[in-house]
What we know:
- By secondary structure, this protein is α/β, with parallel strands linked by helices.
- The chain folds into three domains: 1-47 and 305-346 and 358-456, no CATH class; 49-294, no CATH class; 463-610, Histidine kinase-like ATPase, C-terminal domain (Heat Shock Protein 90, 2-Layer Sandwich), CATH 3.30.565.10.
- It is 48% helix and 18% strand.
- It contains 18 helices and 25 strands.
- Strands 1, 2, 3, 4, 5, 13 and 14 form a seven-stranded mixed sheet that branches. It has a five-stranded mixed sheet with strand order 20-22-23-25-24, covered by helices on one side. Strands 9-10-11 form a three-stranded antiparallel sheet, with no helix packed on it.
- Helix 10 runs antiparallel to helix 11.
- The two termini are 37 Å apart.
- Adenosine-5'-diphosphate binds at residues 512, 516-517, 520, 544, 546-549, 557, 562-564, 567, 573-580, 603.
- Adenosine-5'-diphosphate is lined by residues 512, 516-517, 520, 544, 546-549, 557, 562-564, 567, 573-580, 603.
Amino acid sequence: MLRFNRQAAGYLATLAACFVVAQVGGWTGFAGQVDGVAYDVMFRLSPPATKALGSVILAIDENSLKELGGMRKLRGALAEALERIAPEKPKAVAVDLVLADPSDAAEDDRLEEAFAKSPHLVLASDIVDGPAPGTTMWESPIEQFRRHAFAVGHVHAAPDPVCRQLPLEKAVRRDRRWALAFEALRGTLKDSAVLETPEALEVGHLRIPASRATARAVYIGYPAPRPDGQSPIPHISLKQLHDDPALAARFKDKVVFVGVTAQTAARDRLMTPYGAMMTGVEIHASAYESLSAGNFLEPAPDIAVVAFSLLLAAAAGAVFHFRYGWQAYVLGGMVLVIAHLTPYLLFAGRTVFPYFAPMSVAWITVAGAASYQHFVVRRRLVKSETESARYQQAIHFVTHEMKTPLTAIQGSSELMTRYNLNDEKRKQIAQLIHSESRRLARMVETFLNVERLSEGQMELKHEPFPVAETMLACVERARPLAERKRIEMRLEPLPDVTLTGDRELMEYAFYNLLNNAIKYSPAETVVTVGGDADKQRVRIAVRDQGIGMDEKELHQIFRKFYRTKRAEASGEAGTGIGLTIVEQIVTHHGGTIHVDSAPGKGSCFTLLLPLAGAGAAA
Length: 618
Ligand code: ADP
């Protein structure tokens, strides 16, 4: 279980941010393009099942236009072809030409006659700009033809560089028209009534998953192309039929799509998911084939896409929360593989699942979770490294400090055993050993206290002690060090007040300041100790004439293990934890510490401590 601490909250926030970024990215145009390309790849890998085709294209190709008299003579040529086909009883005839204007009256009459004989004639209409600016209107076949039509359909495809979908419905204001291919399909059915629900169209025994929200768009299940890349739907041109009337038999019981395939005349060429260009009439015939096959690709509901993305983000989060190292990376990789494969597996099951959103959610959350955990682990490592370094320094410090009393004890005991000393001397030496070992014990005690103090495990003693006396004791202890460097210890009057707190720790702090003042001063200088008090607090100052510190160093000296370059150069620098401890002790007593210093000008350390009862921290 996630423990709800700050770290877990940070982790969750990171994951949530990654998720949101990826989701928002999924709504961009770029994501749409990626989804499109992925769709095409999956479409080619898993094309719709092939079945017997029910349509034939009556193609107006280059040859037909040339030989039969060009576009001007087209209507007559078309009439001739349709008249030849009619006796073969095609199921429907869909004409992908917008016959919106009358032409040569004789030709129109002839075409009308042919239309009248064509079963389930479907004519085409198109949306064009209306007379008033900004309006649109239907461009429909002239009434002469229209009255013979079973239906008038629209010939719009989805305006995308690659034609993947066909909107079954198009409307100009209240005048709604079905797609040409759908009308042709209705023409083949006994009961052509359409039942409309918000999610689908039902006609005959077919349920077409075309939602009202998307203009009833359906994915076109283009039949797989032949090995030469051409559409598998048979083409017979006007010219071929003109030359060989027996070809009419090929239209028997078929749905006929009539349209221009000539390179020079066909305006409506679009790319298919197979990567080939296709003319409008071929696209309509393909759409008819996919509608009549009833094998539809359905878009996955939005909620499922979001749920799947959430699942991926959660999986990425869980993987990097519960596992470390290579295990986490392998599992993270599996999350990515799932994100990449799922859309394809679903596609094979005829569900169109967006590719970009789940994929980017998986990548971004896996990367986010991995880097978050990486940095957390690193931070922990750095922390434990500094802790162990600190510990080593502390040990170093103690052993170093212990050397002086130990040397004294060792030397004295040696004296006692080697030489025959009189009682007087013996007593002196025994006293020295006693006082040094007590000092040693006190040191160990102090050190342990300080360790516990910084861990926050120690309760401070809360007893009164006289400031002046404590200070004087420290000065006496430091005097031998000063004498060695011929440094004068100048005592100014000390306030005769009583502090409340831990005397031993406070002594440690005072002594440390004196020790530093002596250490970081050249020989034959003066260290001054003084102070004063009012009702509230006592001020104690230790001033030296030593090497001093600059502004930048002053900010650092209370950090553990920090030593100034100047101090290191003087050869006196210690472990750099003394002042850290002093500051801790002073703060635990509710006081503050201030330093005034300039390089080469000496330093003055001032302690301000509250007097008994004046807000001392427990
Ligand atoms: P250290 O064991 O190094 O003396 P401290 O924590 O007591 O550790 O002091 C930290 C650093 O602060 C010292 O290394 C030294 O650079 C600087 N410092 C402390 N006291 C003085 C002083 N009186 N004059 C100049 N520099 C000082």
